[in-house]
Amino acid sequence: MNEQRRRGFLIPISLVTRAAKEGISLAELQHMVNRSARFTHPEGNRRYHDYLFLIEGRKLMSFQKVTEEEADEEVFYKCETCKDAGTVPVFDVCEHCDGAGCKHCDAGLVRNTIPCPACTLKKEEFQPHRARRRG
């Protein structure tokens, strides 16, 4: 039997209060978080329309609204891979449940960061070489 399991997220009272100040009810916030899609962004790992959410395990850590100005603003980075952060987000399989899904993860995946591979390559390419003196 193919059964769909509803999975809810824990939302701290501080974020519920902040959402209420922005005109978002608890039911709307829960709906937004539950319907959010996985997303790779320095500020969050899920997105619902104009909102970014940072979720770790089954807990909402933060949320923010992305304004049109921020979306349209042109930004130039030295490294386009990590946006000059030095690290990139990756999702590893949860060690507790081997990817099956548990209270420590988000559907079997755990957010992690690794050093930016593009920055590492750039550093290796531009290492100064010193000539030896003969003498």
Topology, element by element:
Layout: H1 13-21, H2 26-35, E1 37-41, E2 44-48, E3 51-56, E4 59-65, H3 68-72, E5 87-93, E6 109-115, H4 117-125
Antiparallel strand pairs: 1-2, 2-3, 3-4, 5-6
Folded structure, characterized:
The chain is an alpha+beta fold. The protein has 2 domains: about 5-75; about 75-130, no CATH class. The chain has 4 helices and 6 strands; from the N terminus they run H-H-E-E-E-E-H-E-E-H. The strands form 2 sheets. A 4-stranded antiparallel sheet has the order 1-2-3-4. The longest helix is centred in the N-terminal third of the chain and has 10 residues, at about 25-35. The radius of gyration is 20 Å and the shape is flat. It starts with 12 loop residues before the first helix and ends in a 10-residue tail after the last helix. The relative contact order is 0.12.
Keywords:
single chain; 135 residues; alpha+beta; four-stranded antiparallel β-sheet; two-stranded antiparallel sheet; 6 strands; 24% helix; 27% strand; disordered N terminus
Give a brief rundown of this model:
This protein has helices spanning 13-21, 26-35, 68-72, 117-125; strands spanning 37-41, 44-48, 51-56, 59-65, 87-93, 109-115. The chain has 135 residues and is an alpha+beta fold.
